[in-house]
Write a structure and sequence with these properties.
The protein is mainly alpha-helical and 76 residues long. It is built from 4 helices and no strands.
Length: 76
Amino acid sequence: MMIKKRKIKVPRNCIFCKEKREPTFKDVAGISKFMTERGRIIGKDRSALCAKHQRHVAREIKRARHLAMLPFVSGL
């Protein structure tokens, strides 16, 4: 007989909601925290962002990539 593990919901707070600011492509150090070392965008469940700010972060990372402020891929 297997016992099911229950997931305990931990209340997470979005850092952008807490600080009342929006992510911007100019803040490369700030948005690079939401990328892996290989250059992929971290998902909402691991980054602890709300859905609205996760969409904004993804868009700003893509803008920074097109302006060559962030790499598309790193460490191949």
